[in-house]
Structure formats: C-alpha cells, structure tokens
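Thread: "does anyone have the structure for this chain?"

Original post by V.I.:
We have the sequence but no experimental structure in hand. Need at least a predicted one for the grant figures.
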Amino acid sequence: MKKLFVAVLAMCTVGCATLTSDAMTPGALAFSDGSTGECQLTNKRGDWLAEIPSTVSIRRSDDSLKYQCKTDDGREAVGSIPSTVGAKIIASAVFIDFGITDAITDKHREYPASFVIPVKARTGNGEKSGSSAGSSSADEVSEGKDIYIKLQELDDLRKKGLLTDAEFDSEKKKLLDGN
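Reply from O.Q.:
Generated one for you, tokens below.
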C-alpha cells in the first residue's frame, strides 16, 4: 500500500508547472501614445492578430514574441517581447521529472502580463497626408524635434563622460548637416 501511495504521489507531481500552468498566457497590449490599431504577434508556437489595446491569449514559448503593428492612422511599430523563465520550473525540478516536461512544453516560460508597444509620436495637427503644404511643414517640425532630442541625448552622453567634446562636436555637425 505504501508503494502504491508513493507511485501515485510521484505521478501527480511530475511536471508541476505543467499541471499548474496553462499553455496559454494572457498579455495586455497597448500603444505608448494610447492610440488604437492592430498587431500581428508571432512566436514558434503560433501567430495571433490582435486589436490594440486589448488583452491577448498567447501560447507560452522560449523565444521572444515578435510584433508587427500598425496604428489606425498608419504609424508602424516592430519589435519583440522577451520570454522569461517562470518560478514554477524550480518546483518542477524538485520532483521526479527534473523539469523536463516543462522544458519540452515551454509552460514554465512567461511573457510580461502587460506590455506597452512604443510608437512614434503623431506628426502635424491632424492634417491629412494629401495636404502637401501642411504635411511638409509638419514633417519639418517633426524632424526638428527629432534632431533636438538626438542633440540632448548626445549632450547627456558627453556630460556622463561617454563622449569627448570632439566626438560630441563631430556628431552634432553630422546631425545639423543632415548626414
């Protein structure tokens, strides 16, 4: 009887994370500026098309979750969300299978519960792209802001001692000359 109890207990504890984790995990996704759109999500376990913002059920995997997104106003964002090892694999490793079952199924892997997808700021004040004069002006303003931000980043690097004054001046000249 004691041997039977031990055998049943061993069978019940094999793959602890496998028994306690669903293969799918929810992930809340949103764009950094609060806009709406859609994203194509991909990992080696599947593909999903998601409206943004929303919560999507994603298959756990040991590879990064790649996203290709487009806002409703046409801006695009491409990147990936890393997968991490969850704590339940440690509990599984203590038991009979030493985490092998979970390593095969990737059920010990986790994506962040929520993720903000960075998108570039909108350009212009609502002008339509067909308006060449307004679009050109908006593009110039946007480009000026981008250069200003890059100059601030270069200055921060110089202040931290990561760039010499000569390197800063060289990079500044390249930015201002449009190279």
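V.I.: this helps a lot. Confidence is low (pLDDT under 50) at residues 11-19, 89-97, 126-136.
O.Q.: and The longest helix spans residues 132-159.
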